[in-house]
């Protein structure tokens, strides 16, 4: 990677003893519910599952961090908590500056609206003013390469087109902290390369990056730091290369 600005000391992101639980089952059989009622509603009918357990993570200005781990280890939940779409049950989360990213591709998109309106809608959700969007609109569309489809309703887009527009909007919001969740896999190879170049450019400009990916080669191109998660806990924090080595070793042991 070229021109990488060394990380400053300022903390931009801090998760402190974060725990997140999900309810696995809301309902049981009628018989189970009756027994529960007869017994005076003792106990809990729903099973709970801890997706994050006592997770603490501090990220400094300009760091590029990869969150790694097996399926279900809590990576996406961590990103959702950082982005604010989900709240932790216990613990605290603090972020300084504008956070943007691709967590659920086009989550803010409205299917019945054309791409053009969705650019305005999504960019506004990500914190841009109308004037800012007006100024960057052409660049956003050019980056997405969707051309005349900008005036087509996004329900007619292919998943790749959808991703392109969502990514184009996100990178043009000029975020301080950029979050990317395994979405690059959706785009075709040339667009993927373009996205990676754009992400590297953001990092070289000193922006902070948190990436979730199973592509261990890709994360080593983009990230300097690697955090490995296992069952909702952090089990390794070091350089990205070390984290990839740790994960591979761990997976070999588990196989
Ligand atoms: N809204 C939800 N309701 C119930 N369980 C959930 C919810 N979101 C996540 N989980 C569970 O929490 C656990 C962690 O999920 P998460 O998506 O954070 O894992 P991940 O490490 O990103 O996995 P993957 O690599 O498969 O994307 C999983 O077992 C998942 O089933």
From TrEMBL:
Name recorded for this polypeptide: ABC transporter ATP-binding protein
Coiled coil: none
Superkingdom of origin organism: Bacteria
Keywords, alphabetical: ATP-binding, Nucleotide-binding, Transport
An annotated Gene Ontology molecular function: ABC-type transporter activity
Annotated ranges, domain ABC transporter: 13-255
A Pfam family matched in the record: ABC_tran
Family of the protein in this entry: Belongs to the ABC transporter superfamily.
The keyword Metal-binding is annotated on this UniProt entry: no
Native source species: Propioniciclava sinopodophylli
Gene3D superfamilies hit by this protein: P-loop containing nucleotide triphosphate hydrolases
Regions crossing the membrane: none
Keyword set includes Nucleotide-binding: yes
GO CC field: membrane
Phylogenetic lineage: Bacteria, Bacillati, Actinomycetota, Actinomycetes, Propionibacteriales
């Amino acid at each position: 990677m070229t021109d990488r600005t060394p990380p400053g000391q300022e903390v931009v992101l801090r998760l402190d003893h974060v725990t997140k639980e999900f309810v696995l089952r809301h309902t049981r059989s009628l018989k189970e519910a009756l027994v529960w009622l007869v017994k005076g509603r003792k106990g809990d009918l729903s099973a709970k599952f801890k997706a994050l357990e006592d997770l603490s993570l501090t990220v400094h200005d300009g760091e590029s961090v990869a969150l790694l781990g097996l399926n279900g280890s809590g990576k996406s939940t961590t990103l959702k908590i950082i982005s604010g779409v989900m709240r932790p049950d216990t613990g605290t989360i603090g972020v300084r500056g504008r956070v943007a990213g691709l967590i659920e591709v086009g989550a803010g998109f409205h299917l019945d609206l054309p791409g053009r309106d969705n650019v305005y809608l999504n960019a506004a959700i990500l914190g841009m003013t109308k004037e800012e969007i007006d100024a960057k609109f052409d660049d956003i569309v050019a980056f997405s390469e969707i051309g005349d489809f900008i005036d087509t309703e996004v329900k007619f887009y292919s998943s790749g087109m959808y991703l392109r527009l969502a990514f184009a909007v996100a990178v043009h919001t000029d975020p301080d902290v950029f979050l990317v969740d395994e979405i690059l896999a959706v785009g075709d190879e040339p667009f993927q390369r373009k996205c990676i170049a754009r992400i590297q450019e953001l990092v070289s400009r000193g922006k902070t990056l948190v990436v979730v990916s199973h592509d261990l080669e890709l994360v080593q191109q983009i990230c300097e730091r690697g955090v490995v998660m296992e069952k909702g806990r952090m089990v390794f924090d070091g350089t990205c290369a070390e984290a990839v080595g740790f994960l591979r070793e761990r997976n070999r042991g588990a196989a």
